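Standup notes
- DV: blocked on the single-chain target, sequence here:
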Amino acid sequence: MPRTSAPVPAGVDPTVVSPARVYDYLLGGKDNYAVDREAAKQIIEVLPEAPAIARANRGFLLRSVRVMAKTLGIDQFLDLGSGLPTQGSVHQSARAIHPNARVVYVDLDPVVATHARARLSDKPDQTCVVEADITDPAAVLQDPQVRQLFDWSRPIGLTAVAVLHFMEDQVDNPYLLLDAYRRVLPSGSALALSHVTDVGADPHQIERAQGIYSKAKVGGRSAPLVVRSPEQIWALFSAGPVLLEPGLVPVEQWRPDQPQRGLGLQVLGGVQQL
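- DV (later): unblocked, structure below
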């Protein structure tokens, strides 16, 4: 049977690669188009472990939310560049600890917003999807849904998982971007972050992967793959960061539920209490 593509929302060009939909395919999802599947297959040719890396990154997201909820008592989460809710989601992980946890998903991809809203319609008073550009913190934070859903006197868990490596320093400056979000978060909030690094992959692999993503776009914005060093990823956390144990490590090694083998290309992840 041929694979069925996701419906095309108004304003979406199904001939342009979307990082969120490529990620969806790598995770085994169905909310993607032929162009995304072709890009994902090219990524797998370059990096056969790509699906395992995607699953490891998703696992880090779910575990970090669980730790923020259980250890830090956080029951409100703002998920930046959320992507499609494939193979587990922030609200499911948070509500395993706090049944009434509130979650805001933010993504610029209309396909993400359309499918996420359809799947999250059962608890509109606890979950919402905001179609917005996360590089405009004011627009995100002043969105009426965001203002109404969160209690701004209590901590919020901010997640920026596998999203900042689609931002260039000269264009979006992810360092200043995160600072803009951190400044408005209440005391006791936390940040979970993951980012692809140059450790564990040869330059040829990285160059080919960047070539595949060179034409990718999110909501009309270019989304090139930017690979940063561990030192540069560390600097994305605020000055003098103290991270929860085990610090900034490959995502598969961050508090795994069971022992995990190391992967080739590394995605580093960490959680910082603010």
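- Follow-up: The two ends are 50 Å apart (CA to CA).
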